[in-house]
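Open question from group meeting: does this chain pack into something compact, or does most of it stay loose? Before anyone orders reagents, we agreed to write out a predicted structure and look at it together. Recording both the input and the output here so the notebook holds the full record.
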Amino acid sequence: MKFSLLALVLLTAAFALAPAQETTQGQMCAGVAVMPQPTGDAPNRMLSDDAEVADLVGVARKTIEPGQAMGHGQLMLSARLGHHAAVEYRRSSTPPMVHVRMAEFFYVVDGEADLILGGKLTNPKCLNSSNLAGDGVEGGVTHHVKKGTYILLPENTAHYFTNIDKKQGVTVLDVHVPTPAADQF
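Structure tokens returned:
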């Protein structure tokens, strides 16, 4: 446990020192209207445990359709507006993405895959004011990830999972982290 926490701290520090990748792709969606925040109180779900996650991943493995990249019934935790975490079961490649206004943290809970990081999206399309998806990535670096791997992506970093173990799939904890103002750290 101490090693895992130390690895997380070192990984976080390394990425904090690296400036976010400047990209014109990140500016593509600047003209897209920002979706308004929901009004009222957002539903909060801040706690879960390994048993619930294992049950939900089991359901996802059984109900995933052929050709579907991610299973249904994933665990979603949220705390107020704009902060969420999910446990996601993936069986095949997901589209390459760039998140313009947030960093993303992954922890590989189970399985293994290749994670492509960096480079430039090919044929990028705005999904909304903060997210781009593409057909592929030019110039990304392949990292083999497996159970116990921590990954922290700065905003504007192209990424996607591929070469996912077909027998086991890969289960990741995925946390989106809004980018703080420059004077917050």
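Observations to bring back to the group:
Confidence is low (pLDDT under 50) at residues 2-23.
The CA atoms of residues 21 and 33 lie 23 Å apart.
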